[in-house]
Design a protein that fits this description.
heterodimer, A: alpha/beta, Rossmann fold, six-stranded mixed sheet, B: mainly alpha, 0% strand
Chain lengths: 247, 226
């Protein structure tokens, strides 16, 4: 990625499904190498926000630039710069990890796809299982392989949509270590999660999305981590109350 | 261009490796097509009805129904575990997804047809070997049109809960020109007509093949997007 001041730049972003406003006027920017964690209750529009930023769905209005590209234009070059980890693993269950990653490496146009696939499989500690069908994997192993898929092309920006869902303690720690490593390598990361301790541990910025809006966006250094839970519940309650009055 | 073709080849390779491991698609299509032909063969008295008159219709009904199973399965694989999302995140023109799936469907369906044709020949006591060349051309033209439109519509219906019902409802009416052309040409070939004498039908079927592929190229980006 070219040296841009902001890896992600979002202005007045809106996405509506009929009368439902999933994303309702969000503004923020993330510099290269920054880590933003977005908290929020179910249905707050966090996944929709990530889908817009990844170019999987178009915004209703507003603009979002990722790696300098307008997401609404759906430029293939933008997709070279991003990787996604979500609860859906995007892995073919009847293929092996090696076959899956060779396939995605070929789709990314990487040279020597098998070598690259073997390298990332080793990085996520799945080398002994590289020739087993993905269908036989546990949730934790699937998530590690999902990380391998997402970082296969060494993207500058990573989107993580509730990556800790369904993981046991060991798998959570493995995932956290990987995220920390990626953060140390100056990757820009935007993560949505319900896990307050995991979410606060690694990030530089924290946002709280409620009813499609950012009710709260601060640098991690400006908030009291011990008080965050009460901030979270206050913000969710206040915003939901405000929405009811609006109606 | 090289990358574009490599991406299409990668999708075809992935579908082949999956099918080699599961053997679900080809076996299901073959058994279904065989059952359709068997049901008709037991319900028709071939000493009264001319095989070359009823045979083409029965053959294409078998191909269509079995092919629909294949099309449904094709994009279900992509929806499982959000694989389609993974495909949409690669830096590829989204027509690569369409062409990759189209070629896979075309190859799988053609393999099934190559197994069904000899059985059709035996059950209906029709000599296909003397018309094999023109027949294969006609089967290819019909199958290409079916796969061209079917791949587009299966990508559309994959997002629906009622995909198994919606695909045939959307697909069959739009396929009418191709099916009429394919059935008429197959019948004429079995009656001994040369391919050169039915260029009107060949042109019609080939034109619809091209139209369906063209429409798919123009719309696939919007259809795949949620």
């Amino acid at each position: 990625m070219e040296s841009l001041e902001n890896a992600i730049e979002v202005r007045h972003l809106r996405k509506a499904f009929g009368t439902l406003k999933a994303v309702d006027g969000i503004d923020f920017e993330l510099k290269q190498g920054e880590f933003l964690t977005v908290f929020g209750p179910n249905g707050a529009g966090k996944t929709t926000l990530i889908k817009i930023l990844a170019g999987l769905t178009r915004p209703s209005s507003g603009t979002a630039k990722v790696a300098g590209f307008d997401v609404a234009e759906g430029h293939p070059e933008m997709r070279k710069e991003i990787g996604i980890i979500s609860h859906a693993t995007a892995l073919y269950a009847d293929l092996t990890p090696l076959e899956n990653l060779i396939f995605f490496a070929r789709m990314h146009g990487l040279k020597q796809p098998e070598d690259r696939a073997l390298k990332v499989i080793e990085e996520v500690g799945l080398s002994p299982r590289r020739n087993d069908r993905v269908r036989t994997f546990s949730r934790g192993m699937l998530q590690r392989l999902s990380i391998a898929r997402a970082v296969l092309h060494d993207p500058a920006i990573l989107f993580l949509d509730e990556p800790f869902t369904g993981l046991d303690l060991h798998a959570t720690n493995v995932l956290k270590e990987h995220l920390q490593r990626l953060h140390d390598r100056h990757r820009t990361i935007l993560m949505t999660t319900h896990d307050i301790s995991c979410g606060l541990e690694m990030c530089d910025k924290v946002a709280l999305q409620v009813q499609g809006k950012f009710a709260f966006l601060e640098n991690i250094t400006d908030i009291d981590k011990d008080q965050f839970e009460s901030i979270y519940f206050d913000a969710v309650r206040d915003n939901q109350f405000a929405m009811k009055i609006d109606f | 261009m090289n990358l574009y073709l490599n991406q299409i080849a990668a999708i075809v390779w992935k579908d082949f490796v999956t099918e080699l491991k599961t053997r679900e698609l080809l076996s299901a299509m073959f058994i279904f097509a065989l059952l359709v032909i068997l049901i008709f063969i037991f319900s028709i008295n071939l000493s009264i009805v001319k095989a070359s008159e009823v045979g083409p219709g029965i053959l294409w009904v078998a191909f269509l129904f079995a092919g629909t199973i294949g099309l449904n399965r094709s994009f279900m694989l992509e929806k499982e575990n959000g694989c389609l999302m993974g495909l949409m995140l690669v830096p590829a023109d989204r027509t690569t997804i369409y062409f990759g799936k189209l070629i896979s469907n075309l190859i799988f369906l053609s393999i099934m047809e190559l197994f069904i044709l000899p059985l059709f020949m035996i059950f209906f006591n029709i000599d296909l070997l003397s018309h094999l060349g023109p027949l294969l051309v006609v089967v290819f033209l019909g199958t290409l049109g079916f796969c061209a439109l079917g791949t587009l519509l299966s990508s559309l219906s994959a997002n629906l809960k009622t995909r198994e019902i919606m695909l045939p409802i959307l697909l069959y009416p739009l396929l009418i020109p191709i099916i009429i052309g394919a059935v008429r040409m197959t019948g004429q070939i079995l009656d001994g007509t040369e391919l050169a004498d039915m260029m009107k039908w060949v042109g019609l079927t080939a034109s619809f093949d091209i139209i369906y592929i063209g429409v798919s190229i123009m719309t696939i980006d919007h259809i795949l997007e949620e």
